[in-house]
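haha ok so turns out i had the wrong file open the whole time. this is the CORRECT one, sorry everyone. sequence first:
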Amino acid sequence: MVACELDGETSAEVLGWRLPPWQALLVHRVLPACGGLVVYLLVMCFDITIVITRFMDGSTGLAVTSLILIVLPALLSLVFTLASPPALLADDGADSTEQTETIDCCWVLTQILNFFVFPVAAISRYMYEIFWWTEAVFASLYQDEARTKQAVALARAPSPLELYLFLQAFVHAAPHAVINIVVLMTDTQMDYDSVSLQAISIVASSLRMASTATVYRRFEREKVCGRKYPWSYSRAIQDNEANEHIENHNKAAEENIYETILPRNRPAPTPYLNGNRKYNSNLIQFSPSVRGDSGAFFDSASETDSDYLVPIPRSQNIISEANSDDDTGRPKSIIDRVAPRRNTEYTIQDVEIMPPPAMPAPRLTLSDWAEKMVENMESIPDWLSAPPRYKTNHYEVVRDEPDIPRRVSRRFVTGLEPQDAAASLVHFLGWHMFFISRLLSISAFIVFHPIAAIVILFSHYQIMLLLLIVPQASTVRRSFYIFLAFVYLFCLMELKVRFRHVRAWHAGWLVAGSAQTLVFTAVWAAVDNPLSAWWRDYVVLVIFCSLLLSYMCLLVYFVLLKPKETIVYIDEGKKFRA
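then structure:
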């Protein structure tokens, strides 16, 4: 798969068909941004309407809980953003400390203002991206390179609002969908309008979760191939500075392709006389291509243009200065002046290379083979066999302690190429169906067996948290792991964590999550279920059909449409396809 020429984080193909850059940006950037804006508007509008309806109906507890879930992602985003501010916020012209402090204060006030008006700020972020990606599409269509680069740079500019949009999918949408399903199963006196509002909110929440899982599921592997966090502003500053340094270096290299050749400072050679002419002993050379009257000796260095040029006779020099530097009438290039071609009369016809003498391969006798086997067996660690023996010429040395294993740094890492629009769509549908079955099973199990559901889910959360927490990690990263362990209740993604055996992790979690969904469904449907037979069969059918469709979509994605992995060498910085 090939990355887009204008945006390296997106694919330039769809189902193997190469797209022009403007079509690649339209399919992979503009359309997903428009879809994300529509889903966000659905989630926020219907959830706010549900909160207002519950306040009017007297369900103050549910209304306050829903309102907290709506505000909590913005609050967490503000905390994480202020806890890790950008390293440098001042412009190049802001040299004084007062100007730097002023810019820092403006940045902090901007983040606080975004918290208070987070729905409007998120919508403005979507509109900003849509505008500049559309500008990049039209600029690329009309082949305006400067305008295209500017539009792509502005569209890819990071923002802390992207962190809010990521947190909103699992901190707000997932718990609120569970609450809505629980209310639908327990409240039998709801009218048609309330049921419609909550049903649309559940579907929109699952769409929001599926889109986020599709974008960030393998983020760390894609990060190896050049992808960056969309909310890391300090990282963007460093990348921009690095890009500017590279561009300036390339411009300087383009301007100064040929360096000025200066004559060497060396002592004057001692001339000697040959008849009536004076020759320089350091410049006397023999050339087989010189014939006839031209002679075998050349003039002194004072009669040539540069000390680095091969001396030529005065007559030829005068003719070349009058006409041109060669027979074709073209001036000599700098390469011809520094290292001119020399035409010789000698022709090499046959070269005879003697092969090395043939030596028989050493034979491994039975005793040698047995000795090698013993040495290999002795190389097993100390807790399986005796300490290893090191043979010398006359005696054996037995080590009392085994060698300490040393960690060898890896020269390469495995990355993942960006997925195209068809793969993203199938992946999105698979996660959407999986989340519907997952949310329905968890909510129904909470309704009919609340204590068992709380124990199982809390145990699941604790196991994920124990696997994620690293004592050497920073406080901000460990705080983010607390949230990430909650995400692992619904799906598994590589974000701030890189799995060593990624296929085993994803397959194991998918099997465990599916088994948990099936057990939850079987238990609440068979044990003490007060629902009517029609509603029970309907919910069970929706769960099993959604799970089956999710398996079909994920199977098509992993077998046919999954992007290929790449091996990125750390030392050389080159990418090779695995």
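Residues 64 and 570 are 51 Å apart (CA to CA).
again sry for the mixup
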